[in-house]
Amino acid sequence: MPDDPQWPTEDDDAESVAAASQPTVQVNRPSVDQPTMRLPLAAVLSAPSTQEPPRSSPIRSAPNATGPGHATLGVPTAGSGGSGRPSGDTAGGKSHGTIGPEVGQPRAVPMRVEPKKDQTRVVPRPEQRTTELSVPPGKTARVDQLPHLEQSWFDQQVKSDRQQHQPRPEQTKRVDQLQGQAPLRQEPPRQEPPRAEPARPVPPPPRQEPRDLPVTGYEEEPEDRLAEEPRKSRKPLFAVLSLLVVAALAGATIYAVKEFGGTKAIETRPPAAPANVQPLVKAVTAGAPAPTAAGVKRALTGPAGNSALGTLTGSVIDPASGTALWQQGDTTAATPASSLKILTAAAALLSLEKTDQLSTKVVQGAEPGTVVIVGGGDPTISGAPGRSVYPGAATLDDLVGQVKAKGPVTKVQFDLSRYAGEPLGPQWESVDIVGGSVAPIMPFMLDGGRIDQTNVNGTRTGSPAQAAADAFAQRIGAPAATAGAAPAGAQVLGEIKSAPIEQLVDNMMQISDNVLTEAIAREIAIRTGNEPSFAGGVKAVRDVLTKNGFDLTGANFVDGSGLSATNKIPPKLLTDVLTTAAKPTLDDARTAKLRPLLTALPVAGGSGTLAGRYNGTAAPGKGWVRAKTGTLTGVNALAGMVVDVDGRVLVFSFMSASNRNPETEVRPALDVLAAALRGCGCS
Fold first, then answer.
1. Residues 87, 89, 93, 94: what is their CA dihedral angle, to the nearest 10 degrees?
2. Above 70 in pLDDT, residue 81?
3. Which of 19, 165, 446, 492 has a CA positioned 20 to 30 A from the CA of residue 408?
4. Where is there biased composition of kind Acidic residues (predicted)?
5. Alpha carbon 115 to chain centroid, angstroms
6. Residue in 49, 512, 533, 656 annotated catalytic
7. Is residue 288 part of a domain?
8. Are 360 and 375 in contact (CB under 8 A)?
9. Structural domain of residue 243, as residue ranges?
10. 199 and 116 both lie in a single domain
11. In a domain, 594, yes or no
């Protein structure tokens, strides 16, 4: 704000276009030394704008209203005096508030200012003609807009210098802020001493919010400040900037899509065929010394003599050279227990495609509203998603959802014709079902027949197919399921598929799942043209292994899982299969197919059935031994591979027949035996 207010002069009036023709209002100050201010009438009649935010007015005035509901005295407005006709010109520029009601244009009342003793009055001049003009944009409220019937600023008592310069506690308001309010408190009269030139305005006090406040004086805000534009909100600017950023991002996205392939870059492509993984077994240290029979014998003599092992048979082979490093009854048939799964897994990898899947379908039944579940040999179907011990298992809910989408179902049947023969293997004991070792082998079941889906060794049901079919019927809204046959060529209403065979083999080896192993043995039988039964599965496994050059002399087994105590195989058969899988090169075609067998073996102290083992004196083998376990009453076995401290891969199989405590004596003794191979330094 400038230091001194700038009053209009004669030269300013001369530069006005309307100065010669428009009537003016002359303001006479009490002092003859002060300049005369002439204001164009058209500018005085400027219509107030309601768009600008409140700002301080250049005129001090007493209140011109007595409260809400009282008419404003002084300046007539359209509809309140004169002709009563509102002006049609409502356009206007900046304003500092509304003088009267916001209807039409106000009529100016001619007046003159006369000094009278110690007061100055503004009185109407009846002899002057009042002209009604269209109101151009105006900046401020002028003197002639003040009410002529109420006390004006010039009517107030003169203050002394001491009173004039005392700070006022009241904060200023504009004239338009006083319209329609209750009567304001009158400011005590004050005196304005004569002066030769305008005095420096006193800065306004800090803004407060009392109720009754006077308005500011004309001299406190110079005319150049009144012409400033109102402060504008930044919200439109932020909105524009946001739109520009969004537009830029959209443009960049479109450019990237076009630049890097257009529609081809975002279209959905079918998944690629599974990669043909062929992991290699290499020496950990290049040029590692070759193990010797003497070195291995020296390492195993002590652990092998542990009496807790009872009758111990086994063998150790160097797969890089095929040399037998340790042998103890290796050709004598013994009970392998679950280590027999190595043979079933090898036959599956040699005869089935790694990407093969087991399919379960629901087809249209012979009668309307009837559906038939066709068991496809997948025992891993999950009855409770997220609670399965089988990674990648299909879900029953998925199958139900597909069938529901085809229409209502009133009857459910299940077809188990895929398998033949007895559901329980020879010499299997019924207590194994309650104990969680196995369930009747059927082509349609949920979670391997487990009642608790997350408990690997939990109790299983004796009728897994009926339980699974009833669960399907309940979820689809039909009565309990019954056995039935699927019509030939019936329409398929739904289908789910298991994880690939390679993953199923890995899972059955990790958790030593008997049901899954028997299902895979039947799939081998179906692929080789044998009957899908226990006998057909065993024959198929033997046929595949014999065809691939493995010697099964002395091997006699009746199932694929090793659950029967009547199974007998020589330890050498297990090491022969593992040696082929562990060869360091892929010169042998069988090696490439059997590689996944090595990664399917549980890791000592890390995964599967070996996760809780290899503690105490067997700890050196933790993480280095990978092996398949086998446990039956009086029988314990361990067959797998280990990397010794010289960086050589060794393959082993150990079978123990002992009546000692398997948990605290026999299995720990086998773990120490394998760990001894890890630290032997067998060169």
1. 30
2. no
3. 446
4. 1-15
5. 81
6. 512
7. no
8. yes
9. 235-265
10. yes
11. yes
Q: Residue 48 falls within a domain, yes or no?
A: yes
521 φψ region: left (φ > 0), alpha (ψ -120 to 50), beta (else): alpha
Answer with the residue of higher pLDDT: 666 or 77.
Answer: 666
Q: How far apart are CA 425 and CA 566, in angstroms?
A: 11
Q: Which of 204, 242, 501 is nearest to 359 (CA)?
A: 501
Q: Are 577 and 596 in contact (CB under 8 A)?
A: no
Q: Are residues 343 and 366 in the same domain?
A: no
Residue 218 in this model has a pLDDT that exceeds 80: no
- The structure tokens listed for 441 are 């082998």
Same domain? For 556 and 650 the reply is yes
Which bin fits 477, alpha (ψ -120 to 50), beta or left (φ > 0)? left
User: What is the three-state SS of 403-421?
Assistant: HHCCCCCCEEEEECCCCCC
Length of the chain: 683
> 133-157: per-residue pLDDT in tens?
444 454 444 445 544 444 544 444 5
* Average pLDDT over every residue of 671-683: 91
Question: Whole-angstrom Cα distance, residue 291 to residue 320?
Answer: 10
Q: What are the tokens at 398?
A: 């998925």
Residues 10 and 136 in one domain: yes
Co-location of 104 and 145 in the same domain: yes
- Where would I find the beta strands (DSSP E) of 147-206? none
State the pTM of this model: 0.61
CATH classification of the domain holding 583: 3.40.710.10
pLDDT tens for each residue of 96-112: 344 344 444 444 445 55
Residue 107: name the closest of 65, 138, 135 by CA.
135
Reduced to 3 states (helix: H, G, I; strand: E, B; else coil), residue 656 is strand
Please give the helix or strand (H or E) that residue 521 lies within, else none.
Answer: helix 514-528
- Strands 492-497 and 359-364: what pairing? antiparallel
- 439-483 pLDDT tens trace: 999 999 999 999 999 999 999 999 999 999 999 999 999 999 999
Q: Which residues pair with residue 625 across a beta bridge?
A: 642
197 plus 118 within the same structural domain? yes
341 is catalytic: yes
Among residues 464, 499, 534, which one ends one of the domains?
499
Mark which of 440, 470, 499 sits at the end of a domain.
499
In a domain, 279, yes or no: no
Looking at the structure, do residues 483 and 517 belong to the same domain, yes or no? no
Compute the average pLDDT of residues 266-286.
59
The amino acid occupying position 167 is P
Instruction: Give pLDDT tens digits for 4-36.
Output: 444 444 444 444 444 444 444 444 444 444 444
User: Catalytic residue among 173, 341, 583, 622, which?
Assistant: 341
Query: Encoding tokens for residue 39?
Result: 């204001």
Phi and psi of 556, rounded to 5°? -145, 105
